[in-house]
Write a structure and sequence with these properties.
single chain; 503 residues; alpha+beta; Cytochrome p450; three-stranded antiparallel sheet; 12 strands; globular; oxidoreductase activity, acting on paired donors, with incorporation or reduction of molecular oxygen; Cyt_P450_E_grp-I; metal-binding; monooxygenase
Length: 503
């Protein structure tokens, strides 16, 4: 009997092994994607991409340009994923009303479940997304200037205190505190106290940064990741806090957002509390005009999205830009000279309107956005049922195609010497061409709705930081400022500086 059982197990294992071999042979021979070039291991298994993205070193996106140079504009980077580097193809996929849905497994964060980010189809997402578009319009952000200045005053005062005490500052975390506090106050009329914490190290910011290296795991193991997320968040708060501090920080924000939405939903529609909120339209949709009627769960997910999306990306652009200028101090000097034309002293704040007239400041902002990418991940889309022809090649329905900001924003045919931080490129005659090819906020119907807020914060922060302080590197290395791909770039170390207040 034992012998029969052993033989049965052996046969099952043999069959399983045979099926695996057949599957792999199919992927490199009969699979419709087998005719697309790329590393053979990538065609067989996700281990090729995982070996980069889960290594903690250079992510796959940093190797894509080399692959495209070798294999052409379409490269098979996973068994069912083609990465594409072609501008015409990019604008075909990322256009208004695009039929290319987002890949569900990639946009699978449980914390955003119900938000417009996680809706795969752009047309389906649009009514939900449109509830917030007006709140982030250029006019709305211009009216936000007093709040931006209020946060700047606190931020600059803390930097001045650090300068007075000759204290080192982790400026990358400080930028996260500034941008996070600004967006949370605008969106919800409340404070998380991010700018109140000693030395810019609030728990929320530190914990989220600590969790960043695990993000890529959820891309490759979405089912396991979802199960782990559900398990962790079902535990008692004390256990979550002790063993999963990042999860506890996120849960605390979730609870605050849910409480806020609940409070707003009970307030009179014409109350100042509701009318000053970005949720004013979402809470009072015009059903006769067909406006989207959002559930409380959806609005809570939207609230979390606004906080996280509005914090890291802008802070990263500031960090990339400042680090580049620390290494090239002539840029800092040149920028200060220009800013001094609208800021005669170090105690006043300039209007956004005045700052936007400064060409070199604009160039620094643009270059910082270009090199910081906005999103570093391979943004995945699904080919619609009719299939598509891109780069002269027919791609079958349901194929996953991806596009990386890193490849496009560092395209040497558009941005000469792309790995050099060079604001002067934005002062030349071809600036319109550069603008049309800089995709840090993405393009089309799924582009970032927070673009105007990001620009306002970048102009204001760069201007007043440069006008008031000189920065001295406090041991930061290029290795510290190298990054891994966690949907947004995550630095391997901290931007440590000491500040010298200027007269």
């Amino acid at each position: 009997m034992a012998l029969v059982s052993l033989l049965l197990i052996e046969q099952i294992l043999l069959l399983a092994g045979l099926l695996i071999v057949v599957k792999y042979l199919y992927r490199v021979t009969l699979d419709p994607l087998a005719r697309f070039p790329g590393p053979k291991l990538a065609a067989l298994t996700s281990l090729y991409a995982m070996s980069y993205d889960l290594s903690g070193h250079d992510p796959l996106v940093k190797h894509l340009k080399t692959l495209h140079d070798k294999y052409g504009p379409i490269v098979r980077v996973r068994s069912n994923e083609l990465h594409i580097f072609d501008w015409k193809a990019y604008y075909t996929v990322f256009k208004q009303g695009s039929d290319f849905d987002r890949l569900t497994e990639f946009y699978n964060s449980p914390q955003f479940d119900g938000s417009f980010l996680n809706i795969p189809n752009a047309r389906v997402a649009k009514p939900h997304r449109d509830l917030f578009v007006q709140a982030f319009s250029k006019a709305a952000i211009n009216n936000l200037e007093p709040l931006i200045h209020e946060k700047q005053v606190i931020f600059l005062a803390k930097l001045n205190e650090a300068a007075t005490k000759d204290r080192s500052v982790g400026l990358d975390l400080a930028f996260n505190c500034l941008t996070g506090e600004t967006v949370i106050h605008y969106c919800y009329q409340m404070s998380l106290g991010l700018l109140d914490e000693p030395n810019f190290r609030p728990r929320l910011v530190v914990d989220i940064h600590g969790f960043a290296p695990f993000v890529a795991f959820f891309w490759y193991f979405p089912v396991i990741g979802g199960m782990l997320n559900n398990l962790i968040f079902s535990l008692p708060d004390g256990i979550i806090d002790k063993f999963f501090p990042a999860a506890m920080s996120i849960k605390a924000v979730e609870d605050q957002c849910a409480s806020l939405i609940n409070s707003l939903s009970k307030a009179p529609p014409d109350s100042e509390e509701v009318q000053s909120s970005i949720f004013r339209q979402a809470l009072n949709p015009n059903k006769e005009k067909g406006q989207y009627v959002a559930l409380q769960k959806e609005l809570t997910a939207d609230a979390i999205l606004m906080l996280l999306a509005g914090t890291d990306t802008t802070a990263h652009a500031l960090t990339f830009g400042v680090w580049a200028m620390i290494k090239q101090p002539r840029m800092w000097t040149k920028l200060r000279e220009e800013i001094s034309t609208v800021l005669n002293d170090t105690q006043t704040l300039s209007s956004l309107k005045s700052l936007e007239t400064l060409p070199y400041l604009r160039a620094v902002v643009k270059e910082s956005l270009r090199v910081s990418l906005g999103t570093s991940a391979r943004l995945a889309r699904v080919v619609p049922s009719a299939g598509v022809t891109l780069c002269g090649r027919r791609i079958p329905a349901n194929t996953h195609i991806s596009f990386s900001h890193y490849v496009y924003n560092y395209d040497p045919s558009i941005f000469e010497d792309p790995h050099t931080f060079n604001p002067d490129r934005w002062l030349g005659p071809d600036v319109a061409t550069l603008d049309s090819h800089m995709i840090s906020f993405s393009r089309g119907s799924r582009s970032c709705i927070g673009v105007n807020l990001a620009y306002a914060e970048l102009y204001t922060t760069f201007a007043h930081l440069v006008r008031r302080f000189d920065l001295v590197n406090d041991g930061t290395t290029d290795e510290d400022m190298d990054w891994i791909d966690t949907f947004v770039p995550s630095f391997k170390g901290r931007l440590r500086v000491k500040l010298l207040a200027v007269e």
